[in-house]
Amino acid sequence: MNLVIQSTTPISDSHLRPLAALARSKDMQRADDTLLRLTEADPLQRPDIDAYCGAHGLDYAYVAPGAALADFGLVAMDMDSTLITIECIDEIADFCGLKAEVAAITEASMRGEIKDFNESLTRRVALLKGLDASALERVYEERLKLSPGAERMLEGARAAGLKTLLVSGGFTFFTERLKTRLGLDYTRANTLEIVDGKLTGKVVGEIVNADVKARTLVETCAALGIEPRRAIAMGDGSNDLKMMAEAGLSIAFRAKPVVRQAASVAFNFVGLDGLLRLF
């Protein structure tokens, strides 16, 4: 395998010899000062590479020689804390003074400590009952920011011929705006019920949980005429695990430990555009 090492800052020459020894690599190429590619690396050395890179703020990935981004046909992304930096429901809750309470439930759910995502979401949305719907617009305009490298990653994916899917346990209010803003091909999320300009504390229709996320990826691949192994899935929370398991390549982005352990690749430091630099 090729071993790709990435960093947000120049990779010091002092790392070259230890990395080559740990990887048992035959050759090393510097693509630029923040990217190394070690050829014929031994994947069984992953635990040692993981420990070294974690200690030095480096991201790594084992990539098959000759693999190309164009081998894939779809990149599927979670929204909250993946494509964007915030958890929208936590920020909405801030407008009714309940951010800490809602954020605690969100964190426990994403870490896999609350097994029933439907119950977790229902509990959190119920706390928003009576909030003026204008709070959603304020969250979008004032607090929502794209994760580092998001637009560059999407541009690169499109240039390689991939379609884009945003599938979220969050809300259509945000996914539809991001679809228009970023030119995404497909979106799937939950719909908040709004009556007379206020949130009712309910979600309309089927909740987008882990199973629905995975099903959406598979169905989108079928619509595109490709196998799920030709999909890339990116996420950060436990409700992304089933979707990531369906994909041929899974990326844990600034993710919870349970997700990092299950993913093909973990980006703990670099931006989403680290995807492009793997190939």
TrEMBL record:
Q: Where is the active site?
A: D78 (nucleophile), D80 (proton donor)
Gene Ontology MF term list: L-phosphoserine phosphatase activity; magnesium ion binding
Q: Which UniProt keywords apply?
A: Amino-acid biosynthesis, Hydrolase, Magnesium, Metal-binding, Serine biosynthesis
Source organism, top-level taxon: Bacteria
List the InterPro entries.
Answer: DUF4072, HAD-like_SerB, HAD-like_sf, HAD_sf, PSP
Domain DUF4072, residue spans: 3-49
EC assignment: 3.1.3.3
Q: Which reaction does it catalyse?
A: O-phospho-D-serine + H2O = D-serine + phosphate; O-phospho-L-serine + H2O = L-serine + phosphate
Give yes or no: UniProt keyword Iron-sulfur: no
Q: Does the keyword Amino-acid biosynthesis apply?
A: yes
Give the GO terms filed under biological process for this record: L-serine biosynthetic process
What's the cofactor? Mg(2+)
Recorded hits in Pfam families, A to Z, give: DUF4072, HAD
Q: Which family is this sequence assigned to?
A: Belongs to the HAD-like hydrolase superfamily. SerB family.
Q: What is this protein called?
A: Phosphoserine phosphatase
Organism of provenance: Caballeronia insecticola
